[in-house]
Design a protein that fits this description.
The complex is a heterodimer. Chain A is mainly β. Helix content of chain A is 0%, strand content 59%. In chain A, the strands form two sheets. In chain A, strands 2, 4, 5, 9, 10 and 11 form a six-stranded mixed sheet that branches. A five-stranded antiparallel sheet of chain A has the order 1-3-8-7-6, with no helix packed on it. Chain B is an all-beta fold. Chain B is globular. The chains are: A mainly beta, B mainly beta.
């Protein structure tokens, strides 16, 4: 089975930097994804790490350590519009070799002025 | 280029009834997955369809079934509705069964069971 843990809530100030951690336990692992979901909206893809290290996409960066079963999402220059829920999701295979996403419970980020 | 679309947007049903939700994948995508998202939780994988067959299934009872059509659109059916089935049902699509790490989600169908 798959198990992912992330903090339930984080609050940060506009313009600051925030890090959202994710630890996972999975049977099989291809990579770790991050999704953003605003209230009432659909999850939208932010980043993916298939290998160890840091991936940077604009103000967002994501890190993965496969040996530690750990990753994080780093958001820089926070804006009010970044207030949303952030989910880490493991891309893992099943017994047939097909793969799908298994999501954590999400971290609700609140950006304050 | 239309993204993933779902219908209806909202639905209210009574316990014991049956419901059908619909999804059209993003253009060029042939693999459709369904997720259930309870309030305050992450999406939970229900099943995945590719080439009109169910290829993977999460930990959901047989009351949850689906179908994929030749045009890659998909339906999710839930029989004998329970109060606990109230949730946001999300459809996601991608290109290919084994490849592609980015899934595109639709806006979801909010199902309320009373």
């Amino acid at each position: 089975g798959q198990s992912l843990e992330q903090p339930s809530e984080v609050t940060a100030v506009e313009g600051a930097i925030v890090q959202i951690n994710c630890t996972y336990q999975t049977s099989g692992f291809y990579g770790l994804s991050w999704y953003q979901q605003h209230d009432g909206g659909a999850p939208t893809f932010l980043s993916y790490n298939g290998l160890d290290g840091l991936e940077e996409t604009g103000r967002f960066s994501s890190f993965l350590s496969r040996s530690d079963s750990y990753g994080y999402l780093l958001l820089q220059e926070l804006q009010m519009k970044d207030s949303a829920s952030y989910f880490c999701a493991v891309r893992a295979p099943d017994q047939t070799g097909a793969n799908n996403l298994f999501f954590g419970t999400g971290t609700r980020l609140t950006v304050i002025p | 280029d239309a993204g993933v679309t779902q219908s209806p947007t909202h639905l209210i049903k009574t316990r014991g009834q049956q419901v059908t939700l619909r999804c059209s994948p993003k253009s060029g995508h042939d693999t459709v997955s369904w997720y259930q998202q309870a309030l305050g939780q992450g999406p939970q994988f229900i099943f995945q369809y590719y080439e009109e067959e169910e290829r993977q299934r999460g930990n959901f009872p047989d009351r949850f079934s689906g179908h994929q059509f030749p045009n890659y659109s998909s339906e999710l059916n839930v029989n004998a509705l329970l109060l606990g089935d109230s949730a946001l049902y999300l459809c996601a699509s991608r290109a290919g069964l084994a490849g592609g790490y980015e899934q595109y989600f639709g806006p979801g169908t909010r199902l309320t069971v009373t």
